[in-house]
Amino acid sequence: MHSASVMAMTKKQAAQRILDGIESESRMKNRTIISIIPALLSSSAIAMYYSYQVAIGCLLLLLALIQYGHERMGKSIEESKAAAFASLGWKAEDIENDDLIEKLNKIIQK
After folding, report:
1. 87-100, pLDDT tens digit by residue?
2. What pTM was estimated for this model as a whole?
């Protein structure tokens, strides 16, 4: 299924997908940090009204879910970028990040 989507992608679509992936990677850290705040607040409320043992268990569970989501999101972004690089016939390791963004913007402008 992935190879069919790679072949059907135009150069502009591939370039846009890579740029979107770079942007998503930069936002991922902030979103992960923001998702920790409700976990801490809910665990604090549980600690105040029930017990610390339950609150610690709740916090560990929520942090594990946050970590899982973070890893899945990162993997999805990497797979999307890899498919786009393959569509363009490029290797991700060969291109500097600043040079990459400039080349992608030129492709999109065409």
Report:
1. 888 877 766 666 77
2. 0.73
Nearest CA to 31 out of 80, 69, 76 is that of 69
Nearest alpha carbon to residue 69 among 18, 17, 20, 34 = 34
Total domains in the chain come to 1
Q: Which range of residues forms the domain containing residue 18?
A: 2-109
Distance (Å, whole) CA 99 – CA 44: 46
**DSSP letters of 16-46?**
HHHHHHHHHHHHHHHHHHHHHHHHHHHHHHH
CB 9 within 8 A of CB 101: no
Separation of alpha carbons 83 and 81, rounded Å = 5
